[in-house]
């Protein structure tokens, strides 16, 4: 777009050529200058266009990442963040024997599984249903996306009330069928289930729409020939839809895993405290990082946790890549 | 600022010709870059306005009530050259780390900064050199304040980093209707006599209450409230006078912990965590009979218990005088308007203003001279059956012990409550397990 406009029209060049030599030369120089500018333009403009992203990334992504890495090798107190005392890898080695860290890692993993697996399965089912010819399909598609549009805080506060011990609606409903009150927040599994429920509620619709988009790209002939071969709806789903969705499923697994590793807002607001319950029974890595940095004022330790989380994510990424490669090969 | 001006020029360029997209992109990048840089610039401070007025900024957390009580307006009228601007952060958990950051960067500080009592020891120990010595400010009379309050803001070198604003002498708020049904006296004097002088008598009253307790009610909200009240009534809590961490062996912690365990054991607690949603709902439903309450909690109870609880609540003296909460005003050194800020801080914390603030916002004065002023002396609380709160709480305030504070007081207290007691009370663990879990966490925090 830029290039075609800065380039003078060829016709215009032809008409400027005949007159006096001096003028022609000037015109020629102008044209050459224009061309040079054009080349320069074409070459560097794209960089200028993407520069804002990289500037922002450098300032708010890369720099904090590196600085956190640097801080993780020091003892840094929130009292005097500019004063750093070199401690080498001590912040990392102490993590190895830190029960709170392993507890948080375990919780992050179990909450991650509890939330991601049902979330994606339900999303797949929902997408399959939405893929049928439906009256008012747009309405349903928007409807499944609404939880995604709610803020974490609002959703979590509502869920915390639903899961309340004395006056929660879920316990009230359980009471109707004769089941005793469950102290959701204080049990390990119950609290993790509750936190997972918030995540599932918020993200199922979003993933369903991604699956739906991928499903609609599956060629219709495949279903027709499957139907001709006598495949039932379920068999079509299993043998046509799911295999065609493989790359999409992989993508959602990766995105959900990253989200699960960084889980923070839901467990923080669910109990309203950075400890993640009286026994840290639902304290995630993100929450533990927050506690170390902003309540214990140990920024060095918090940085080490942040980097441990990064390393975990890289490991998960690698694992995912290996699986993707194997899946590609088997095909 | 610089950013807006640059946006203006690029804007003009785009008008001249759409083919000029490259400079536009470069300009945009420059603007964004400049934006990033200017984002780091200081904008929290104060300045002289165009009309020659000096603007003083006051950094606070939560609702301090100066604005609501009209004290800023009053000061501005008395000093026409001054304009006051309050920067409020909702939670101290966010406010305090930001304050520390601004202190170490020496930028973004307000002319006056409030500090909570749980943080004052840390601030006066680690950052005393960054604050003006309030003891030397003009018009400050040490004898106006309660001694223990004055001493809390004293740095090891003798400098005073902050002037006391409010305090939180504790009483016990109780439901008369529930007391009556349980066969206990309802008159506030008699109720106070039930447990006067000893927190264990409070637990004994609870045992009596539970024998005839109205169905579905508990004697107190949670064991942590009891622990908090009991432990604060000792002269030594978590730190010894020479600044050593002694919480594992301190008599205050051991006795208060044991009392809390006894309360849990006899099932007289509502198993509630204070300031949780469930706690609020329990107020509305009237499911516990007592709660340890400083003056600042009265408004909270009124709001949560609502009309349904009207005429049922009253307030009696606590077994022993103890303090919960309160704040200080500090003036960071090197501000543009240090002198004016000092004057304002002195004025805001003077006994007359503290009394006004109590009348309008129920922040209890830390200036003992204010207790003789009619705003405090004759104060009654309508919701609590016209309880003479001025009298009840000033008596408590005068008996509060001077307790050495330490840098990690707050985190030790919340860890013992929210981990230790909570594990026993709500998760069914043994007292030993609860205590060990709390100690493990505290050790992790205080370890270097």
3D architecture notes:
With about 325 residues, chain A is mostly helical. Chain A has two domains: about 55 residues; about 240 residues, MetI-like fold, CATH 1.10.3720.10. In chain A, about 75% of the residues lie in helices and about 0% in strands. Chain A has 15 helices and two strands. In chain A, helix 3 packs across helix 15, helix 5 runs parallel beside helix 9 and helix 12 runs antiparallel to helix 15. The longest helix of chain A is centred in the first third of the chain and has 51 residues. The relative contact order of chain A is 0.11. The N terminus of chain A is likely disordered. Chain B has about 450 residues and is α/β, with parallel strands linked by helices. Helices cover about 50% and strands about 15% of the residues of chain B. Chain B contains 19 helices and ten strands. In chain B, the strands form two sheets. Chain B has a six-stranded mixed beta sheet with strand order 2-1-3-9-4-10, sandwiched between helices. In chain B, strands 6-7-5-8 form a four-stranded mixed beta sheet. The relative contact order of chain B is 0.14. At the A-B interface, helix 1 and helix 3 of A face helix 2, helix 4, helix 12, helix 18 and helix 19 of B.
Q: What's the gyration radius of chain B in Å? A: 25 Å
Q: Gap between N and C termini of chain A, in Å? A: 42 Å
List low-confidence stretches of chain B.
Answer: 1-46
CATH class of the largest domain in chain B: Alpha Beta
Please give a quick description of this structure.
Chain B: It holds the Pfam family SBP_bac_8. The complex is a heterodimer of chains A (331) and B (448). Chain A is an all-alpha fold.
């Amino acid at each position: 777009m830029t290039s075609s406009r800065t380039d003078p029209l060829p016709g215009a060049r032809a008409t400027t050529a005949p007159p006096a030599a001096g003028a022609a030369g000037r015109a020629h120089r102008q044209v050459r200058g224009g061309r040079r500018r054009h080349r320069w333009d074409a070459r560097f403009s794209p960089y200028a266009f993407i520069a804002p992203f990289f500037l922002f990334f450098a300032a708010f992504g890369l720099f904090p990442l590196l600085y956190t890495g640097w801080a993780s090798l020091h003892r840094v107190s929130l009292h005097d963040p500019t004063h750093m005392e070199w401690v080498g890898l001590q912040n990392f080695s102490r993590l190895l024997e830190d029960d709170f860290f392993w507890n948080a890692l375990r919780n992050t993993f179990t909450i991650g599984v509890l939330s991601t697996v049902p979330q994606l399965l339900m999303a797949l089912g929902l997408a399959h249903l939405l893929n049928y010819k439906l009256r008012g399909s747009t309405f349903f598609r928007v409807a499944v996306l609404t939880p995604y549009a709610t803020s974490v805080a609002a959703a979590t506060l509502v869920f915390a009330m639903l899961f309340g011990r004395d006056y929660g609606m879920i316990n009230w409903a359980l009471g109707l069928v004769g089941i005793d009150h469950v102290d959701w927040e204080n049990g390990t599994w119950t609290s993790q289930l509750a936190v997972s429920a918030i995540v599932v509620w918020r993200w199922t619709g979003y993933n369903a729409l991604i699956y739906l988009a991928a499903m609609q790209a599956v060629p219709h002939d495949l279903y027709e020939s499957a139907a001709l071969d006598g495949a039932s709806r379920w068999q079509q789903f299993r043998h046509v839809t799911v295999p065609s969705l493989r790359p999409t499923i992989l993508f959602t697994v990766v995105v959900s895993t990253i989200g699960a590793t960084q889980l923070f807002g839901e467990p923080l607001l669910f109990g309203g405290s950075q400890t993640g319950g009286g026994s840290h029974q639902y304290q995630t890595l993100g929450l533990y990082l927050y506690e170390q940095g902003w309540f214990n004022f140990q920024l060095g330790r918090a940085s080490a946790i942040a980097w441990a989380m990064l390393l975990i994510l890289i490991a998960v990424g690698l694992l995912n890549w290996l699986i993707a490669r194997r899946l590609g090969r088997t095909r | 600022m610089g950013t807006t001006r640059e946006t203006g020029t690029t804007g003009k360029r785009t008008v001249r010709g759409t083919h000029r997209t490259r400079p536009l992109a470069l300009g945009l990048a420059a603007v964004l870059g400049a934006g990033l840089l200017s984002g780091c610039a200081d904008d929290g401070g104060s300045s002289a306005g165009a009309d020659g007025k000096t603007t003083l900024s006051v950094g606070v957390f939560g609702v301090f009530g100066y604005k609501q009580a009209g004290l800023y307006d009053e000061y501005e009228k008395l000093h026409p050259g001054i304009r006051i601007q309050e920067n409020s952060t909702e939670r101290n958990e966010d406010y305090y780390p930001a304050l520390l950051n601004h202190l170490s960067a020496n930028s973004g500080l307000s002319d006056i900064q409030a500090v909570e009592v749980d943080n004052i020891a840390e601030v006066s120990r680690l950052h005393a050199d960054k604050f003006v010595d309030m003891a030397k400010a003009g018009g400050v009379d040490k004898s106006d304040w309660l001694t223990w309050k004055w001493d809390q803001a004293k740095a090891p070198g003798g400098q005073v980093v902050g002037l006391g604003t409010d305090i939180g002498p504790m009483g016990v708020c109780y439901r008369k209707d529930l007391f009556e049904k349980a066969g206990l006296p309802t008159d506030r004097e008699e109720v106070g006599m039930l447990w006067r002088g000893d927190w264990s008598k409070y637990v004994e009253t609870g045992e009596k209450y539970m024998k005839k307790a109205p169905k579905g009610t508990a004697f107190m909200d949670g064991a942590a409230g009891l622990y908090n009240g009991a432990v604060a009534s000792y002269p030594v809590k978590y730190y010894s006078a020479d600044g050593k961490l002694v919480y594992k062996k301190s008599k205050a912690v051991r006795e208060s912990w044991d009392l809390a365990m006894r309360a849990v054991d006899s099932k007289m607690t509502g198993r509630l965590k204070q300031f949780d949603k469930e706690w609020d709902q329990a107020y509305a439903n009237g499911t516990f009979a007592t709660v340890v309450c400083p003056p600042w909690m009265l408004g909270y109870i009124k709001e949560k218990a609502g009309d349904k609880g009207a005429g049922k609540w009253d307030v009696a003296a606590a077994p022993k005088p103890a303090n919960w909460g309160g704040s200080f005003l500090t003036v960071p050194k090197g501000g543009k308007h240090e002198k004016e800020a000092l004057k304002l801080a002195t004025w805001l914390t003077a006994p007359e203003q503290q009394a006004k603030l109590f009348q309008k916002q129920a922040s209890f004065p830390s200036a003992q001279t204010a207790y003789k002023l009619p705003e405090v002396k004759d104060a009654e609380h309508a919701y609590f059956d016209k309880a003479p709160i001025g009298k009840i709480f000033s008596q408590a305030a005068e008996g509060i012990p001077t307790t050495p504070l330490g840098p990690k007081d707050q985190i030790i207290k919340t860890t013992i409550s929210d981990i230790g007691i909570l594990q026993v009370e709500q998760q069914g663990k043994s007292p030993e397990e609860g205590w060990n879990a709390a100690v493990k966490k505290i050790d992790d925090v205080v370890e270097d």
